Amino acid sequence: MLNAIFDRRSIRSYTDEPIDRETLTYLLRCAIKSPTAHYLQPWHFVAVTNKALLDEFNADFHRVYKDARPISKKPLTDDYKLFFNAPAVIFAYVAPHGNQFSRLDCAMAIENVALAATDLKIGSVVIGYSIIMLNEYPELNEKYKNLFNVPEGYEPVLSIALGKSKNAWPDQRPRDESKFSIIE
Ligand SMILES: Cc1cc2nc3c(=O)[nH]c(=O)nc-3n(C[C@H](O)[C@H](O)[C@H](O)COP(=O)(O)O)c2cc1C
Q1: How far apart are CA 132 and CA 179, in angstroms?
Q2: Residue 83 carries which DSSP code?
Q3: CA 92 to chain CA centroid, nearest Å
Q4: Does the pLDDT value for residue 111 go beyond 90?
Q5: Rounded to whole angstroms, how far apart are CA atoms 149 and 140?
């Protein structure tokens, strides 16, 4: 567990090797082991391995944002892949009957996936751009809710791309240790 926390890092280059159904199921089980406020389990997770569908999502992202990524406005070059060609992406959707913590519950579940994946030597990267697009373009949100068979009323919160890293595990980006304190 501690190794997974310290070894996890965002992987942005993947091999074509698929993640099998059993492993994906295990990762989804890890997601729902996460705690939830009031034990609401206010979520629905969809694992997508359909390459055509992930490519279509990427194409929609390029179509609507053209040449600048949302928020950061970093360039969006033709070769930029929203999911970095990962063979699987898990999308977290929050339930309509949630409370003020439900989105956090979903995010914590995604962290469980990232840590479990690290333990299994599977690379991952949390993808927020996908959610920005779904939030900013309601017609695309509806389109993918239909394609992903998302239950009525659920809304996207976060996604995570998963796959075998193409390159050696990169060094982790340094952390700023002034960002915590201890009061005694
Ligand atoms: C909520 C959230 C959204 C993110 N969205 C993206 C994204 O859309 N694309 C991407 O390449 N990385 C994304 N990241 C990954 C961060 O860039 C990354 O975690 C950060 O640079 C620290 O690097 P590390 O994960 O390797 O420690 C996201 C991370 C979080 C927590």
Answers
A1: 27
A2: T
A3: 7
A4: yes
A5: 14
Q: Specify whether domain 2-169 bears CATH 3.10.20.340.
A: no
Ligand 1 atom closest to Cα of 9? 26
When pLDDT is averaged across residues 122-138 and rounded to a whole number, the result is 98
Residues 6+ positions from 83 with CB-CB distance below 8 Å: 54, 57, 58, 89, 127, 130, 159, 161
Q: What is the distance between the alpha carbons of residues 17 and 162, in angstroms, rounded to a whole number? A: 11
Strands 123-127 and 88-94 turn out to be unpaired
Residue 5 backbone phi and psi in degrees, to 5: -60, -45
What residues contact residue 97 under an 8 Å CB cut-off, 6+ apart? 40, 42
Q: Could you tell me the pLDDT band of residue 67, with boundaries at 50, 70 and 90?
A: confident
- The structural domains of the chain, with segments of one domain joined by +, span 2-169
17 CB burial (10 A radius; 0-12, 13-18, 19+)? exposed
Strand partners, 14: 165
Among protein residues, the one whose CA lies closest to atom 18 of ligand 1: 10
Task: Residue 131: name the closest of 161, 154, 102, 155 by CA.
Answer: 155
To test the ligand 1 pocket, which listed residue (127, 131, 158) has its Cβ within 8 A of the most ligand atoms?
A: 127
